[in-house]
Design goal:
Blueprint: E1 6-10, E2 15-19, E3 23-28, E4 36-38, E5 49-53, E6 57-64, E7 71-77, E8 80-87, E9 91-92, E10 98-99, E11 103-113, E12 116-122, H1 125-128, E13 132-136, E14 141-145, E15 152-157, H2 161-166, E16 170-171, E17 176-181, H3 191-210, H4 220-232, E18 264-265, H5 266-278, H6 282-295, E19 306-307, E20 318-319, E21 333-334, H7 345-360, H8 365-385, H9 404-424, H10 428-449, E22 450-451, E23 456-457, H11 484-497, E24 498-499, E25 502-503, E26 517-519, H12 520-532, H13 536-547, E27 559-561, E28 567-568, H14 574-588
Antiparallel strand pairs: 1-2, 2-3, 3-4, 3-5, 5-12, 6-7, 7-8, 8-11, 9-10, 11-17, 12-16, 13-14, 14-15, 15-17, 18-19, 20-21, 22-23, 24-25, 26-27, 27-28
């Protein structure tokens, strides 16, 4: 399959990927970060899948139901046409509680004729590590693991159980359903119940999307789709937003840059919180903000770059040797060893979040006092460590360096800290001292980050390597868009990192060789930089180029192949969709 041609469905507890051919190829139950029950996206033979199809298929078309996370696949056969509506139930009860069970519903709606279908149902629990046994009972098919920890799941259907189990042809004479659940159902399931779950879930998503507020008419649907992705990737119990719904989808086919992204990065939080609040979804923004603030220690405890979606600090990484990987791209990883890395940029991101929170949200005095304690603690950390090298935003696993972006965000931390001190009415000495430190950091960046020969800010102090993060000197307020050094940097980065209309992060070798794919968000950084420095037509042309890389239902992953333009990397990527929204608002905002 090319271009990651999947739709995602979910209910803020977990998510599933459904292929263009109506095969469920990725699902973890009961939560996003649980082990998989279907993972054929990572191994066609051992991963497990759930396919619904017909022997005489003529055409298949797939799209989202407008302004929802319900995915519709229409199958036209020689004997008739039917529609598969895939979704995970989500809506709000009258008592205010959310209904979001660990269920996937595949609702079959008969459109014409009497089409015949076959079901290929092959769950493989626990990432397919051992055998999974499926047994027919009166009201369901139960699948259990026979290796390691005990796991089980259930398949309910209104169709003939024997025919489903044996993969025999089944004539579709009326609407029908399949329901995959982590839990055994107590009440009997009927077509009416499934139809009600469908209607309630559809109404929930349409209502949620209707609260989006923005004045951009062009690319309106792309903004809504991106917002729906971001909401779907938020974790109901805590408000955390996942970087992506998958693990180990490779940055480049056949290479080893395969990571688990089912976690929450603090770095992504600042853009997510401000963007969601700006576009009318203040509740999602507030919940995410509170999650971030709840996991941040008050004083001297180390702040991590990333956490589990419940706030877990230990994210040990291990390899699933039995899985062949996406298109044989090994290894398949679970966990992420980057959690223990030192990355100095997170401090600036965190204080950016706190400043935004104090400026835009109403807080009680006790909350403000706690935030002020966190601010003083973070500023103290930055004051003591900004001059030290780190692993950087790209999470190098080799020797630490004095990365430009890390120094920029340390400067940002001191500046935001000073602004917060002013905002809360702290003694003037705080802001004065912190701005003085910010001045020291600025001097270091200007003296050591700028390469006069190349007329550009570069990847790390004393480096001659270009890096897309230099484009962020303007968005974080370090340089004005009209500053000749920024304009020169934008031109130099474009000339050296842009290829076939797409951006590399950098060209120099890292721990795994030279990058060969475009990091999606870097394209939006360049688009914004070109627009702000006056090349507006070039920015819009590049935007169109990047937008065309999205898949058939408008989703984006972490990376784009530089040659073919196909999507690569974990999918869908929250940061990519956030950046897409920001670029549309900048380029086409009224």
């Amino acid at each position: 399959m090319d271009n990651l041609d999947y739709g995602i469905i979910g209910n803020c507890m977990s998510a599933a990927l459904v292929s263009r051919e109506a095969t469920l190829e990725w699902l973890c139950l009961p939560f996003f970060d649980s082990s998989s029950v279907f993972a054929s996206i990572l191994d066609k033979k051992r991963g497990g899948h759930f396919h619904i199809g017909s022997d005489d298929t003529k055409t298949i078309s797939q799209k989202y139901m407008r302004y929802t996370n319900l995915l519709s696949t229409v199958v036209e056969t020689g004997r008739g046409t039917y529609e598969i509506v895939d979704f995970m139930p989500r809506y709000r009860h009258e008592n205010g509680e959310y209904h979001c069970p660990p269920d996937v519903i595949r609702y079959l709606r008969l459109r014409s004729g009497t089409p015949s279908l076959r079901v290929d149902y092959r769950p493989r629990l626990d990432y397919g590590a051992g055998e999974t046994t499926s047994v027919r009972y009166d009201h369901f098919i139960k699948s259990t693991s026979t290796h390691g920890c005990y796991e089980s799941m259930y398949l309910y259907t209104s169709l003939d159980h024997d025919a489903v189990y044996e993969g025999l042809p089944i004539p579709l004479t009326e609407d029908a359903f399949f329901l995959v659940s982590y839990n055994q159902k107590i009440a009997p399931l009927t077509n009416d119940y499934i139809a009600l779950e469908y209607q309630r879930t559809k109404a929930y998503w349409m209502n949620w999307a209707s609260h989006s507020t923005f004045s951009v008419s062009r690319y309106h649907d792309e903004i809504i789709r991106s917002l729906l992705v971001l909401k779907l990737l938020s974790f109901q119990p805590t408000g955390a937003i996942l970087a992506a719904a998958t693990t180990s989808l490779p940055e480049a086919i056949g290479e080893v840059r395969n990571w688990d992204y089912r976690y929450c990065w603090i770095r992504d939080a600042s853009m997510a919180i401000s963007t969601l609040a700006r576009l009318g979804h203040e509740n999602v923004s507030k919940r995410f903000m509170r999650f971030i603030l709840d996991i941040v220690p008050y004083k001297d405890e180390k702040i991590q770059i990333m956490y589990g979606i419940r706030g877990e600090k230990q994210l040990d990484e291990y390899i699933l040797d039995h899985l062949s990987g996406y298109e044989n791209s090994r290894p398949v990883r679970v966990g992420n060893a980057a959690f223990h890395q030192k990355q100095n940029d997170i401090y600036g991101v965190l204080l950016d979040i706190i400043l935004y929170t104090l400026q835009h949200f109403t807080l009680i005095p006790a909350e403000k006092e706690r935030l002020w304690t966190v601010v003083r603690s973070v500023v103290r950390m930055v004051s003591n460590s900004w001059m030290q090298p780190d692993r950087g935003i790209w999470e190098y696993r080799s020797d630490p360096r004095d990365f430009l972006f890390s120094k920029l965000l340390c400067w940002c931390a001191m500046e935001r800290g000073a602004a917060i001190a002013d905002l809360v009415g702290a003694p003037a000495a705080y802001a004065r001292q912190w701005r003085e430190t910010a001045g020291f950091i600025r001097h270091e960046i200007e003296a050591k980050g700028w390469n006069e020969r190349q007329r550009s800010f570069t990847q790390f102090f004393g480096s001659d390597h270009y890096d897309a993060t230099a484009l962020l000197l303007e968005p974080y307020g370090f340089l004005d868009a009209h500053d000749q050094r920024y304009i020169a940097t934008v031109r130099a980065v474009e000339a050296n990192l842009c290829e076939n209309g797409l951006m590399l992060r950098y060209r120099n070798e890292d721990d795994f060789g030279k990058p060969t794919s475009s990091f999606t968000i870097c394209n939006f950084w360049m688009i914004n930089a070109l627009f702000k420095t006056g090349d507006r037509e070039k920015a819009r042309l590049m935007f169109e180029r990047v937008l065309s890389a999205g898949n058939h239902v408008g989703l984006f992953s972490e990376d784009i192949d530089m040659r073919s333009g196909r999507l690569l990397g974990n999918f869908p990527q929250a940061y990519s969709h956030l950046a897409l929204i920001e670029s549309i608002l900048l380029l086409y905002g009224e």
